DNA sequence: GGATGTCTGTTCATTATTGAACAGCATATG
DNA sequence: CATATGCTGTTCAATAATGAACAGACATCC
């Protein structure tokens, strides 16, 4: 039944794909977590066994030859099947052990995830959590993570979303900044103030802070990490839109409009449908859901005590 | 970008598939040309890495668990992509070296293929021919062979057929058998004679020899190998339908009806479309086509000299 | 120009994988 | 009942794959 005198290794396809995608042996090696030597050798072997040259050296890195292009589609098909297979197997794993890859924003990681999984690991010491922070929504669909906690609901049909609750955010700045520049008037926009925004949008994609126009505002700092944004606000850089649970916990910033209710966004827990039934996924998902529900008020309104204190301060 | 702390080996899927299909470690090992120990180890590793038990021991061999069934489809998809990939690569191989897997019937192998490839290998010593004999038509579509020479045109769309020419066959028996039982009359069927047929059909699928009904005939021997059929006829077992080039070359058998023209069947050369452009496939295919054309008369009518001699003999 | 970083190719010691040989077990076969 | 056959599991020596370290090439930055 064996088809070839010298049967080739399916695994080599992973090496070929990595080099074809990254364009260099070294970056492919990093991606695959092996030495670059190994990558080169495996590619050479694959080419020898298939009897075709797949990659050619160019001034800047490797590029696929025509033959390489011709098989790329089948290689991708193998990869896709392999990923499916892996996920389906993980979904049938009834043990509460192994690795769960989790992705969420920095702020929610601090407030919600880290305490939840610390407690969880008391009960399940064999469970390991890989936490990847960032704002990319693509991660789950590309299977770079098992669970995502997101403030936007993804539309992809194979992803299952569970509503966690609402997260409130408000505008924050340092006391000194507000004293120096004054407090913007609600409903008049943030023109002539300094704002701290996310990098992705040059103010075009996110032109509003709590409904206030950023028209005419100076962008002081752009950073995708909300904790760094908060740090920037605390250092008197300007006004940032922060989650209330975050801003209220930091003594160096206060709400710009203490009496204004927070702007609410819904938080979703996102899982690939194949992983829904996995025991360890369920355990982690429900630990996060529980943690969210325990902190429902804080996540929505921030820390009430701090808020009234800040309001009192601001009024003086 | 690496998805798992301990990345699994795609190659292990081949081991799993082999065991799932054969039901035992040893036969899977033979199929994969490795030791049975390796198969067991790889399966164990795969199960450990996926965190799922894929195979369970039963009184007679291994059988797939529910989890194993769940991933079988993805495994097959990987295999299919791998085979496609292999074939496409082979189709782009411009060297005239390596292995060409050829399948045909025993008779045509003797008469046509062996001389053709012997001559071919003078010109291309690096070319190796794997010759698989048998009547199965499925081989090419399942990619167990690169080239097939068949007397029936397969309907599968991805296979490319080239008409080689016509092969004539006739009924043969030993002189002693005909002397003892008499010569059947043309048009009256083979009732009350002994016939040598193929195994596949219990006379139901092939109820005719040169248009003669086998109704009432005794089946003396069934064998899929035409050379063995001829041997049986030579040993006075009964009447066989043989290719003329074969029967005419054997002194111990004669045509039952020497003056009857042979029954003609078209011979096809079958190649997978992906392999059409491969240099070595083209070389072998044209060598076979040439050999066929050189022997056109012989393949159609057998050996004329022998035939008239036999006819003379039969008439005495 | 010199320094720095990234990339590839080579060498060699380390490590992981492999299969031959053997033993145990079950099932046919005489 | 003895024998033969086929399968699995274990051990260990031989083999194959791997990566750290180094060297050379190329580009970029100061």
> How large, in whole angstroms, is the Cα Rg of chain A?
25 Å
Going by CATH, the homologous superfamily of the largest domain in chain A would be: Periplasmic binding protein-like II
- Along the chain, the helix and strand elements of chain A come as HHHEEHEHEEEHEEEEHEHEEHHH
User: Approximately how much helix is present in the residues of chain A?
Assistant: 40-55%
Name of the top-level CATH class of the largest domain in chain A: Alpha Beta
* Biggest pleated sheet of chain A: 9 strands, mixed
Query: Could you say what the CATH architecture of the largest domain in chain A is?
Result: 3-Layer(aba) Sandwich
* Dominant shape of chain A: globular
Helix vs. strand class of chain A: alpha/beta
Q: How many runs of DSSP E, i.e. beta strands of chain A?
A: 13
Q: In the CATH scheme, what's the topology name of the largest domain in chain A? A: D-Maltodextrin-Binding Protein, domain 2
End-to-end Cα distance of chain A, whole Å, is 86 Å
Give a brief description.
The structure is a homodimer of 316-residue chains. The first copy, chain A, is α/β, with parallel strands linked by helices. The first copy, chain A, folds into three domains: 11-91, Orthogonal Bundle (Arc Repressor Mutant, subunit A); 98-165 and 265-296, 3-Layer(aba) Sandwich (D-Maltodextrin-Binding Protein, domain 2); 168-264 and 302-315, Periplasmic binding protein-like II (D-Maltodextrin-Binding Protein, domain 2, 3-Layer(aba) Sandwich).
């Amino acid at each position: 039944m064996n088809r070839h005198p010298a049967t080739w290794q399916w695994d080599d396809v992973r090496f070929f794909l990595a080099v074809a995608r990254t364009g260099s042996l070294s970056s492919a090696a990093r991606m695959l977590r092996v030495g670059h030597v190994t990558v080169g050798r495996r590619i050479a072997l694959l080419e020898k066994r298939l009897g075709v040259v797949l990659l050619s050296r160019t001034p800047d890195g490797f590029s696929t030859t025509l033959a390489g292009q011709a098989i790329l589609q089948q290689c991708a098909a193998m990869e896709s099947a392999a990923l499916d297979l892996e996920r389906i197997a993980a979904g049938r794993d009834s043990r509460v052990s192994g690795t769960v890859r989790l992705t969420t924003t920095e702020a929610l990681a601090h407030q919600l995830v880290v305490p939840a999984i610390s407690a969880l690991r008391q009960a399940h010491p064999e469970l390991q959590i890989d936490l990847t922070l960032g704002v990319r929504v693509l991660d789950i669909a590309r299977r770079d993570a098992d669970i995502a906690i997101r403030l936007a609901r993804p539309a992809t049909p194979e992803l299952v979303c569970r509503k966690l609750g609402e997260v409130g955010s408000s505008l924050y700045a340092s006391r000194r900044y507000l004293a120096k520049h004054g407090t913007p008037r609600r409903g008049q926009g943030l023109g002539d103030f300094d704002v701290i925004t996310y990098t992705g949008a040059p103010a075009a994609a996110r032109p509003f802070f709590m409904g206030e126009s950023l028209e005419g505002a100076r962008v002081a700092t752009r950073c995708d990490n909300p904790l760094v944004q908060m740090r920037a606000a605390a250092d008197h850089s300007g006004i940032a839109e922060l989650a209330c649970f975050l801003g209220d916990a930091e003594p160096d910033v206060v709400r710009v409009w203490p009496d204004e209710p927070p702007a609410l966004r819904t938080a979703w827990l996102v899982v690939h449908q194949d992983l829904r039934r996995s025991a360890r996924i369920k355990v982690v998902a429900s630990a996060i859901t529980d943690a969210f529900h325990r902190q429902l008020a804080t996540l929505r309104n921030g820390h009430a005590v701090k808020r009234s204190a800040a309001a009192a301060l601001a009024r003086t």
